[in-house]
Write a structure and sequence with these properties.
The chain has about 140 residues and is an alpha/beta fold. It has a domain of about 90 residues: Nucleotidyltransferase, domain 5 (2-Layer Sandwich). It is about 40% helix and about 20% strand. It is built from five helices and seven strands; from the N terminus they run ββααβββαβαβα. The protein has a five-stranded mixed beta sheet. Helix 3 crosses helix 4. The chain is elongated and about 105 Å long. About 10% of the residues are buried.
Length: about 140
C-alpha cells in the first residue's frame, strides 16, 4: 500500500497501489487467451456406416433422378427417353409426391453448356429446389 503524506486534512491518507493488481490481471488474460484455442469444442460423434445390403442401394437409385443431356440433343431421365418439350411436365409428374425436390444433370463431354443450362432452367421451372451437376470426375469417384 502506498501512502500520501500531508494533504488538506493534515494527516496521512492511505491509497491502494493498483499497479500489481493490474499486472496480475494482464497475466491472467494472456494465459486464458493462450489456453482457449486448446479447449476442444463440440461433441464426439460416430458417423453411421452403410450396411452391405443391396436393398438400400436400390432404394437410393429409385429415389435419385438424373437428367442426361446427350450430344445429339436427346434427353434421358434415368435412362428413359424424353424430349425438351416433355421434360418439364415429366419432372413435375415425378416430383409431385416427393418431399425432397433434388435432381441431377449429367451432360456428355462434348455437349455445350447452353443445353445443360436449358435443362436446369426447365427443371427449376418445374419446381425442383436443388439441382446438382454430375461431372466425369464425380462419376468416377474422384
Amino acid at each position: 500500500m502506498g501512502m500520501d503524506v500531508g494533504g488538506k486534512s493534515g494527516g496521512s491518507m492511505a491509497t491502494p497501489n493498483v499497479v500489481p493488481l493490474i499486472d496480475i490481471l494482464l497475466v491472467l488474460i494472456i494465459i486464458f487467451m493462450v489456453i482457449t484455442p486448446l479447449i476442444p469444442k463440440g461433441l464426439d460423434t460416430l458417423v453411421p456406416q452403410p450396411s452391405p445390403n443391396q436393398q438400400q442401394n436400390v432404394e437410393l437409385e429409385n429415389k435419385t433422378v438424373v437428367v442426361q443431356v446427350n450430344m445429339n440433343g436427346k434427353l434421358k431421365i434415368n435412362n428413359e427417353d424424353t424430349t425438351w418439350d416433355g421434360l418439364g411436365s415429366r419432372m413435375e409428374q415425378i416430383f409431385k409426391e416427393r418431399a425432397e425436390k433434388i435432381a441431377f444433370v449429367k451432360g456428355d463431354n462434348d455437349v455445350m453448356f447452353m443445353d445443360v443450362a436449358r435443362a436446369i432452367d426447365i427443371m427449376r421451372g418445374a419446381g425442383i429446389d436443388k439441382i446438382g451437376l454430375i461431372t466425369a470426375k464425380l462419376e468416377a469417384g474422384q
